[in-house]
Design a protein that fits this description.
The complex is a heterodimer of chains A (about 120) and B (about 500). In chain A, strand 1, helix 1 and strand 2 form a beta-alpha-beta unit. Chain A has a single domain, classed as Rossmann fold (3-Layer(aba) Sandwich), CATH 3.40.50.2300. Chain A has about 120 residues and is an alpha/beta fold. Chain A is globular, with a radius of gyration of 12 Å. Chain B has four domains: about 120 residues, Four Helix Bundle (Hemerythrin (Met), subunit A) (Up-down Bundle), CATH 1.20.120; about 55 residues; about 170 residues, Histidine kinase-like ATPase, C-terminal domain (Heat Shock Protein 90, 2-Layer Sandwich), CATH 3.30.565; about 120 residues, CheA-289, Domain 4 (OB fold (Dihydrolipoamide Acetyltransferase, E2P)). Chain B is of the alpha+beta class and about 500 residues long. Classes of the chains: A alpha/beta (about 120), B alpha+beta (about 500). Chain B: InterPro entries: Bact_Chemotaxis_CheA, CheA-like_dim, CheA-like_homodim_sf, CheW-like_dom_sf, CheW-lke_dom, HATPase_C_sf, HATPase_dom, His_kinase_dom. Chain B: It holds the Pfam family Hpt. Chain B: Its EC number is 2.7.13.3. Chain B: One of its GO terms (molecular function) is ATP binding.
Chain lengths: ~120, ~500
C-alpha cells in the first residue's frame, strides 16, 4: 500500500517509515506541517495517510478536514502523543478512521492499517 | 532497534531546545505573544512524543506535565512570568538530560521539577531557583520518586521469593522452617503494603482540575450546572492518576454536551470496592433512549430482530461502546451518546478495567469507570490444569463451588447450571485452553465481567496468591490472556482474561 507519513518531527517520520516499509508498505511521501500534507495529498493520492495532530502551520485536524474535502474517501490514521485524546476524538469526527498513541508498538501501527484496509 | 534512532533523537531535540529558548526569550519581553506560546506548546509536545518513543520515561513525563501548563495560556493568549521562568528551568533540565544521554551517564531525576509543576498547576506559591534544590523540613525528607520506584520493584521481586519460600517450607514439612517461612511472608506483605502506599496519591490530584474547566465549558454552551465531586481523598497508585484525566474529562464533557439540556447537576464520585476503584460520572439529564438503540441495532444488522427484543437495557447500552455502532446521525438521535465512548472504553479496558452505563429515560445517566487499584500487583486464583498453571485475577471472581458432571444441563448445545434460581452458563476452561482434563469432581468459579456472569469449570484451584504482573508486549498472541507473571517456583504463569472466553 502507498502511504504518506505526516509528522513535524523528522525522528518520528523516520521511525514510522521504517515500520511501514518493514511491514511491506511503500512510503510514497512525507509532510511536516498540516498545510504541506494537504498539498502533497493532492499530488500523491496515497492509499493511506498517517497524521500527527500538533504541527506548525496547520494542525492535523484541520488537515484531515481539508483532505476529506478533496477526497471524501481518504483513509487517515491519527498518530498522536498521549494527552491529546480530546483532539483525537475531534479528528475521528472530522473523518479519521483510527488512532494510534505514541509511544506505539510497531505491531499496533501495522495492525491498525490492516484493519483499515479490511473496512 | 531504537539505537539507530538515538542520534537522530539527540540532534533533533537539541535544535528544539534552542528554538524553545528563543521562544521563551520572546515571551519574557512580550507575554502576550500568541505565536510564541503555541510554538512552546508544540515543541514540548513533540519532545514528549519522541522521548516516550525512545523510552526516556522521565523526560517524557516531565514534558507531558509541563505541556499542561500551556493549556490556559494557549486559550488566554497570555502567559504569566512565573511560568516563563519555570520553563527556562525546564530548558536547562532538557539540556542536562541530552548531555547525560550523549555521555551514556545516569539521567538527572525529574521528580522535583514534576512536583513544582504540579504545585504551579494547583496555583500554589512556588519559589523558583535555577539549578538549586531546597532543603528539607524538619521531620520530613524529600525522596525522589525514582527511589520509591526502585524499592517498589525490589519488593515485587521479594513477592516472588515469598511464594517460593512458602511453597518450599510446606513441602519440606519442618515446623521451624514453616514458622520462619510464614513470618517472612507476613513481613514481606507488610513491606509491600507500605511501599504501595508511598506511591499512592489522592484522586483530588486529578479531580481538582475539573470544576474550573467544566464551569468554563458550561458557560460556553450557556448551560447552568451544579457540579459536585465526592471521594477526592481516595488514594490510588500513581500509575493510574497519570492516565485518569482524559477518560474522565471525556465522560464529563459527554454529560454536559448530551445529558444536560439547559440546567442540571453533574456528579463526579469515587469509591473503593475491594481491589477496584469506581469512578461515577452522573447527570440528571434526559437519559438514554434504549428503544431507539434497539431499533438501530436491528437496522444496522448488528443483531436480528428477535434477539434485540430480548436484550435488557444494560446490554443495549453496551452497543454504544462499540466502534461499529455509532455514526453522527444515529448518535444525535440517541441523545448524543456514542462518539468517542468506544475510545474511552478502549482506554479503560487497556488498563484492565471496565466501563459500565446505567440510565433511565428522563432521569439521567451514569457512566462508571472501574479500575484496579494497582496495575502492578494483583490477587489471583492459581489454577491447575493438565500440569499447567494459570492465574485468574480475583477481582472478576464472585464465588466458587464444586460440581459433578451430572449436575450440568445441556440446552441448545450450551452447558449451564441452576444457581439459586438463576441460570449460569458454563465455560470449560481446559477445553478452551486445549488441556487434557481430569474426570470427576471439578470446581466452578463464578466470574462477573461486563455485567455478565459465567461459570468457569476448572480442574483444580491450587491456591490464592498475589502475583506481580510482568510487562509484556501488549499484544499477546491470544485474547485469552491479559499478561504473565513469574510464579513461586520461578516458572512463568499466564494470567487469564475472562473476557476472551466468550
Amino acid at each position: 500500500m502507498r502511504i504518506m507519513v505526516v509528522d513535524d518531527a523528522m525522528f518520528m517520520r523516520r521511525m514510522l517509515t521504517d515500520i511501514l516499509e518493514k511491514g511491506g508498505h511503500t512510503v510514497c511521501g512525507e509532510a511536516s506541517t498540516g498545510k504541506e500534507a494537504v498539498e502533497r495529498y493532492k499530488e500523491l493520492k496515497p492509499d493511506l495517510v498517517t497524521m500527527d495532530i500538533i504541527m506548525p502551520d496547520m494542525s492535523g485536524i484541520e488537515a484531515v478536514k481539508e483532505i476529506k474535502k478533496i477526497d471524501p474517501k481518504a483513509k487517515i490514521l491519527m498518530v498522536s502523543a498521549m494527552g491529546q485524546q480530546a483532539l483525537v476524538l475531534e479528528a475521528v469526527q472530522a473523518g479519521a478512521i483510527d488512532y494510534v498513541v505514541k509511544p506505539f508498538q510497531p505491531s499496533r501501527v501495522l495492525e491498525s492499517i490492516e484493519r483499515i484496509m479490511k473496512k | 532497534m531504537l539505537e539507530e534512532y538515538l542520534s537522530l533523537f539527540i540532534s533533533e531535540t537539541e535544535s528544539y531546545i534552542k528554538q524553545l529558548e528563543n521562544d521563551l526569550l520572546v515571551l519574557e519581553k512580550d507575554r502576550k505573544n500568541r505565536d510564541a506560546i503555541l510554538e512552546v506548546f508544540r515543541i514540548l509536545h513533540t519532545i514528549k512524543g519522541m522521548a516516550q518513543t525512545m523510552g526516556f520515561e522521565e523526560l517524557g513525563n516531565l514534558a507531558h506535565s509541563v505541556e499542561d501548563l500551556l493549556i490556559e495560556p494557549k486559550t488566554k493568549g497570555e502567559i504569566d512570568a512565573k511560568t516563563v521562568e519555570f520553563l527556562f528551568i525546564i530548558v536547562d533540565y532538557f539540556s542536562q538530560v541530552l548531555k547525560s544521554i550523549k555521555n551514556n551517564a545516569v539521567l538527572p531525576p525529574a521528580n522535583e521539577l514534576l512536583t513544582i509543576c504540579e504545585e504551579i498547576k494547583q496555583g500554589k506559591e512556588v519559589t523558583l531557583k535555577r539549578g538549586t534544590a531546597e532543603g528539607p523540613e524538619l521531620g520530613e525528607i524529600r525522596i525522589k520518586m525514582s527511589k520509591i520506584d526502585n524499592l517498589f520493584n525490589l519488593t515485587n521481586e521479594l513477592l516472588i521469593i515469598r511464594s517460593r519460600l512458602v511453597k518450599l517450607s510446606s513441602e519440606i514439612k519442618n515446623t521451624e522452617l514453616q514458622n520462619l517461612g510464614e513470618t517472612a511472608a507476613r513481613l514481606i506483605s507488610a513491606l509491600q503494603d507500605e511501599i504501595m502506599h508511598l506511591r499512592m496519591l489522592p484522586l483530588s490530584t486529578v479531580f481538582e482540575f475539573f470544576p474550573r474547566w467544566l464551569r468554563d465549558e458550561a458557560k460556553n454552551q450557556n448551560k447552568e450546572i451544579e457540579f459536585v465531586i465526592t471521594g477526592g481523598d481516595l488514594e490510588v497508585d500513581r500509575s493510574i492518576i497519570d492516565i485518569l484525566k482524559e477518560p474522565v474529562m471525556h465522560l464529563l464533557r459527554n454529560a454536559l454536551d448530551h445529558g444536560i439540556e439547559n440546567k442540571g447537576k453533574i456528579t463526579l464520585s469515587a469509591t473503593r470496592e475491594k481491589e477496584f476503584i469506581r469512578i461515577n460520572v452522573s447527570d440528571d439529564g434526559k437519559g438514554i433512549d434504549s428503544e431507539e438503540i434497539r431499533r438501530l441495532i436491528v437496522e444496522r444488522n448488528l443483531v436480528d430482530y428477535n434477539t434485540a427484543q430480548t436484550l435488557e437495557p444494560g446490554e443495549l447500552y453496551r452497543f454504544l461502546l462499540r466502534p461499529d455502532f455509532s455514526t453522527k446521525k444515529d448518535v444525535s438521535k440517541v441523545s448524543g451518546r456514542g462518539i468517542g465512548l468506544d475510545i474511552v472504553n478502549k482506554f479503560v479496558k487497556d488498563l484492565g478495567g471496565r466501563l459500565e452505563i446505567k440510565s433511565e429515560k428522563g432521569r439521567g445517566s451514569t457512566f462508571i469507570i472501574e479500575l484496579p487499584i494497582s496495575l502492578a500487583v494483583i490477587r489471583s486464583f492459581i489454577l491447575g490444569m493438565d500440569s499447567q498453571r494459570y492465574a485468574l485475577p480475583l477481582n472478576y471472581v464472585q464465588e466458587t463451588f464444586y460440581i459433578d458432571d451430572k449436575d450440568i444441563q445441556t440446552v441448545h448445545k450450551h452447558e449451564l447450571i441452576k444457581l439459586r434460581n438463576n441460570i449460569l452458563p458454563l465455560i470449560r476452561l481446559p477445553e478452551k485452553l486445549n488441556c487434557v482434563t481430569k474426570s470427576g469432581k471439578k470446581s466452578v468459579i463464578v466470574v462477573d465481567y461486563e455485567g455478565k456472569k459465567r461459570g468457569f469449570i476448572v480442574d483444580e484451584i491450587l491456591n490464592e496468591d498475589e502475583i506481580v504482573v510482568k510487562k509484556t508486549d501488549r499484544f499477546l498472541p491470544s485474547s485469552l490472556y491479559s499478561g504473565c507473571s513469574i510464579y513461586g517456583d520461578g516458572k512463568p504463569i499466564l494470567i487469564l482474561d475472562p473476557r476472551g472466553f466468550e
